[in-house]
Amino acid sequence: MLPTPKKFFLTAAAAEGHSELTAFDNALLAGKIGNINLLKVSSILPPSAEYDPDLVIPPGSLVPTAYGFICSDVPGELIAAAVGVGFSADTFGVIMEFAGRCSREEAAAKIESMLREAFDSRGMELKETKIAAVEHRVEKVGCALAAVPMFY
């Protein structure tokens, strides 16, 4: 069983590569999470997790991460990814992720809407949000990625 994460940050980055996998890897590197092992998780931020934008995670670590990404090999296509964290006053938070063929602003607006809906569905009051978003105009093969890594 994994311990409950105590810290987190948000990242959003985009990159090109020679293939979709290398574009994804390059976006991970650009987002400062390219040398860790992502464990994809769903959308709950532990109650006591602290925001640490300068968090350094040791290479090779297994890291619970909520993330969304999109890759494209259509030159000129605009792609975007965004993540957001919604905070309650006294309990857990909710993470939402989105990726699509749209602008950075459209992706961020989608995150805001999904966070409001998630809190409404839970009967919780949304106190604050943090959102990270990126857009990328594809040259050859591109990737847009947004993530919330959580660590101990």
User: How do the helices and strands follow one another from N- to C-terminus?
Assistant: EEHEEEEEEHEE
Oligomer: single chain
Number of strands: 10
CATH structural architecture: 3-Layer(bba) Sandwich
Report the major sheet: 6 strands, mixed
Report how far the terminal alpha carbons are from each other. 14 Å
Q: List low-pLDDT spans.
A: none
SSE layout:
Elements: E1 7-8, E2 11-16, H1 20-30, E3 37-40, E4 44-45, E5 50-51, E6 62-72, E7 78-87, E8 93-100, H2 104-122, E9 128-137, E10 142-151
Parallel strand pairs: 1-5, 3-6
Antiparallel strand pairs: 1-10, 2-10, 4-8, 6-10, 7-8, 7-9
Walkthrough of the structure:
The chain has two helices and ten strands; from the N terminus they run ββαββββββαββ. It has 152 residues and is of the alpha+beta class. Strands 1, 2, 3, 5, 6 and 10 form a six-stranded mixed sheet that branches. The radius of gyration is 15 Å and the shape is flat.
Give the gist of this structure.
Belongs to the pyruvoyl-dependent arginine decarboxylase family. This protein is of the alpha+beta class and 152 residues long.
Pick out its properties:
152 residues; alpha+beta; decarboxylase; pyruvate; Pyruvoyl-Dependent Histidine Decarboxylase, Chain B; six-stranded mixed sheet; 43% strand; 2 helices
